[in-house]
Structure formats: structure tokens, C-alpha cells
């Protein structure tokens, strides 16, 4: 028997993906067959929900359900999954936890995922393609600024009770598209709790031209926003520049945010209704 036959395929054969962006990247790299299970919050690509068993929620899951698919690698995201990952490590499973919160971090996540499954060259090519798309969007953003004579001011609302402003990669995409995130000073804060807006009148004072709601897991209700005391004076409310971007498009730090999510942001800045995707977010049992 040769050394190669003894070694076999050195890459993980059964990957449990506890985050939707890892699933999206593996499909894009042609490695869907390695996926043994997914989070119930996975929405992209849509065939993943049909083809793969749902083995966890986002921040919670039954250890035995994950172990039942016999993973030799688990891919997870952020401190919100720390407890699940701790238990998996104690059960003897190899775990890689990503924590990307910026455009650069998303691109690094793609490169790392490619390296983990023996698709480094394909991952680099994917990153190069995404980078070209980002550069094209930057140029469109410059043209948008020139048309308006300034950057349009954008308030991105990730949650409404309490108010939570946009995370870092969303803020960066707004800037790239030629807008100005009115809560850019909050965007680099690590947790959603740290991005809470304690006084809703702070939004009024920052006078956004456009408001984008992306309430994770529930439909944005512009009428509820219009009814907030004092908000009638906000330029975005007065001019009816209220938009929704489905959270599946932009609040998962993966390929979708850099493509469809960015396109949706550009549509909002141009006064068009953003194209949406179907969003299924029922947590796994």
C-alpha cells in the first residue's frame, strides 16, 4: 500500500455547520458533499435546507443531535455559540470558530474555509471575484455621492425593542455604497448589547435621510417606526425613505452580505425597493 493510500483524503469528510455563512461558502467552493448537518437558520443556498439535516439552532442546540451526524469538523460563528462549541470540544470534536465582523474578516473567513477543505485556490479565486464586485460598488458609490453632492445619511436598524444599530460589516457596506452610517461610531462595538440606542431621540438628532430596517427574524414595520414620538421630524420619515432589507441578505457575515446585501443597500440609496430573498428562519427543534 502506498503512502497516499494510507493517508487517504486528508480533509474533513463530515462537516457540521452551525452558521449559515459556512454553508454558503462550502456550496460555492463545490464542497457541499462534505456538509453533514446545518443550522436551522441556514437559508443560502436554498437547496441546503432541502438536502441537509438541521442539527442546531443559532445559539443553542442539543449536543446529541450534532454528534449524531458524526462530524469530524464543526464550523461555528462567534461567542454566541461558545457554549455549544465548548461542549463539542469536550466531546472530542474538532471545532473552528469564526468571528468575522468586517468586510475584510468575511473575506478571510472564505480563505480559511477553503484551506480547511483543500480548496485554497478556489477560495482565493472567489475572494478575488468578490473583491472586484466590491470595487465596482465603490466606484458606483463615488458616482452616487457626486449626484447628490454629499453622502446620504443612513440609519440601519437591526432590532426595534430595544433599538440596535447596524453591525460593522453593514456600516462598511453603507460607506462603500456612498452612504454615511449615522451610527458608525457604534458599529465597531463587539456585541449587539453595546450597539443599543438607549434614547430613540438620538436617531432624530442624527437626522438620517434613509432608514433601513432589518429586524432579524421578523418583518420590518415602517408604520410602527413612523409612530415613534418625535420621529415625524426625521428626514427619512418625512420623505418616506423607509426600506426593509431581509436579515438573511445582510446580517449573516458571508457571501450574501457582499453581493445581494450590498445590492439591496445600493437600491435603498437610489430610492428603489431592494430585491429580497425568501427567508426561512425557523429554529431547529
UniProtKB/TrEMBL annotation:
It comes from Methyloversatilis universalis (strain ATCC BAA-1314 / DSM 25237 / JCM 13912 / CCUG 52030 / FAM5). Residues 14-273 form the Fe/B12 periplasmic-binding domain. Transmembrane segments: none annotated. Pfam families: Peripla_BP_2. Gene3D superfamilies: Nitrogenase molybdenum iron protein domain. This is Substrate-binding protein. It comes from the Bacteria.
Amino acid at each position: 500500500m502506498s503512502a497516499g493510500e494510507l493517508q487517504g483524503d486528508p480533509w474533513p469528510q463530515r462537516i457540521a455547520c452551525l452558521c449559515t455563512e459556512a454553508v454558503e461558502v462550502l456550496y460555492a467552493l463545490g464542497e457541499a458533499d462534505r456538509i453533514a448537518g446545518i443550522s436551522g437558520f441556514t437559508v443560502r443556498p436554498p437547496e441546503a435546507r432541502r438536502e441537509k439535516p438541521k442539527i442546531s439552532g443559532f445559539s443553542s442546540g442539543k449536543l446529541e443531535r450534532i454528534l449524531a451526524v458524526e462530524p469530524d469538523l464543526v464550523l461555528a460563528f462567534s461567542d454566541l455559540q461558545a457554549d455549544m462549541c465548548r461542549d463539542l470540544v469536550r466531546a472530542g470534536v474538532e471545532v473552528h470558530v469564526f468571528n468575522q465582523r468586517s468586510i475584510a474578516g468575511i473575506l478571510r473567513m472564505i480563505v480559511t474555509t477553503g484551506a480547511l477543505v483543500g480548496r485554497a485556490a478556489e477560495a482565493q479565486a472567489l475572494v478575488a471575484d468578490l473583491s472586484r464586485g466590491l470595487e465596482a460598488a465603490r466606484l458606483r458609490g463615488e458616482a452616487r455621492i457626486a449626484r447628490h453632492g454629499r453622502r446620504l445619511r443612513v440609519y440601519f436598524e437591526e432590532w426595534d425593542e430595544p433599538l440596535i444599530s447596524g453591525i460593522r460589516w453593514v456600516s462598511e457596506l453603507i460607506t462603500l455604497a456612498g452612504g454615511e452610517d449615522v451610527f458608525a461610531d457604534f458599529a465597531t462595538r463587539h456585541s449587539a448589547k453595546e450597539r443599543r440606542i438607549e434614547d430613540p431621540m438620538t436617531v432624530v438628532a442624527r437626522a438620517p435621510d434613509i432608514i433601513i430596517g432589518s429586524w432579524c427574524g421578523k418583518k420590518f414595520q415602517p408604520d410602527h417606526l413612523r409612530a415613534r414620538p418625535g420621529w415625524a421630524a426625521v428626514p427619512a420619515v418625512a420623505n418616506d425613505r423607509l426600506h426593509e432589507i431581509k436579515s438573511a441578505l445582510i446580517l449573516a457575515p458571508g457571501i450574501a452580505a457582499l453581493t445581494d446585501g450590498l445590492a439591496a443597500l445600493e437600491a435603498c440609496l437610489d430610492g428603489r425597493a431592494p430585491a429580497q430573498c425568501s427567508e426561512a428562519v425557523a429554529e431547529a427543534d
